[in-house]
């Protein structure tokens, strides 16, 4: 392949991923067809199969990417947050919530369609999620150890916060009264409250 | 129809609803087929169509029932909770979370498959949800007015709490380390924390 066809091929791959997300969102994993995805991407089904073995492979790639990007956003926010658990917890939640509000379809599909993946494929996606969760657990543990946070169970509190954020696409509208950033900031407050830290 | 066939007919209807929930959970709304539902219920597809016009009608009935039952559980808990916003908020959240932990499939399907219903059908389901949400909003407003709770936005805080509860089936396992009641009680603590009330 020359450079030009590599670039063209990359373009097709990205377009397939984009239209596959549309299709999974609109029709669910079981309702989605490779043919529809190909049609929307403006290529042949055979072309889709050149890039992705099957629907599972497409869903895995979409969910891993979304999860990796969200993870990166959270880590970038943490890099600027300094060492204090309150700042770190708020920064991590705000970044996580902001990503969710700005990528509602990928986050919704991640929650609703993950259960249709086989065990192996699910593990490939869940690994990236677990790493993300661990970031939050580390901060919460730090806060509890320093006597700043207080929760019945740290992992459970983290999960509660992450699922609360994961629910944002169920109700948030970009053209609604609050911006994604405002919603994310509010969720930072809820998350600090939730771990027993009173935001003054 | 004599009494016996009425009873038999009711039995079939219930069985269809039960197997339809299994099918929606396993295959999603778009992947579910009336034929599979009929097979699992041990009746003919024609028989399923006698009771439900189409898949949407089945999904609406399942989601409305689940929502109504959850609503009833919450109201019953509130009846025993007395007048104080802290007691009422905790009681409502614990009842809501407990129902979710005990009815994971219906609650998961409600969140992941609702978007596939048409506008009219979605409104039939969402009405019952809105009523439920209003219960929580009333208590939170009461708490804020009395200066006991403090949140950036009341509706948003309620939604955060309800989606946090809705996420329970994504991770809770009945054979895990905590019982459904213990998880629900913990969520009562998180929800009180979240609205700025410090559980001592």
TrEMBL record, chains A, B:
DNA-binding region coordinates: 33-52
Transmembrane feature ranges: none
Pfam annotation, one family: TetR_C_24
Species assigned in the record: Rhodococcus zopfii
Keywords associated with the record: DNA-binding
Name this protein carries in UniProt: TetR/AcrR family transcriptional regulator
InterPro entries membership: Homeodomain-like_sf (IPR009057), HTH-type_TetR-like_transc_reg (IPR050109), HTH_TetR (IPR001647), KstR2_TetR_C (IPR041490), Tet_transcr_reg_TetR-rel_C_sf (IPR036271)
Domain named HTH tetR-type: residues: 10-70
């Amino acid at each position: 392949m020359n450079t030009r066809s590599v670039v063209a091929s990359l373009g097709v791959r990205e377009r397939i991923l984009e239209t596959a997300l549309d299709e999974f969102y609109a029709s669910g994993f079981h309702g989605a067809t490779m043919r529809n995805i190909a049609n929307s991407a403006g290529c042949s089904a055979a072309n889709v199969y050149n890039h992705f073995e099957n629907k599972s492979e497409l869903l895995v790639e979409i969910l891993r990417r979304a999860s990796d990007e969200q993870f990166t956003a959270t880590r970038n926010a943490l890099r600027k947050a300094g060492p204090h658990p309150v700042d770190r917890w708020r920064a991590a939640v705000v970044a996580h919530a902001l990503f969710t509000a700005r990528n509602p379809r990928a986050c919704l599909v991640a929650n609703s369609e993950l259960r249709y993946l086989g065990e192996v494929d699910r593990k490939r996606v869940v690994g990236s999620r677990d790493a993300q969760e661990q970031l939050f657990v580390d901060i919460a543990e730090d806060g509890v150890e320093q006597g700043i946070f207080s929760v019945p169970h740290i992992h459970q509190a983290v999960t509660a916060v992450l699922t609360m954020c994961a629910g944002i696409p169920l109700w948030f509208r970009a053209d609604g009264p609050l911006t994604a950033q405002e919603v994310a900031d509010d969720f930072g407050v809820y998350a600090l409250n939730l771990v027993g830290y009173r935001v003054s």
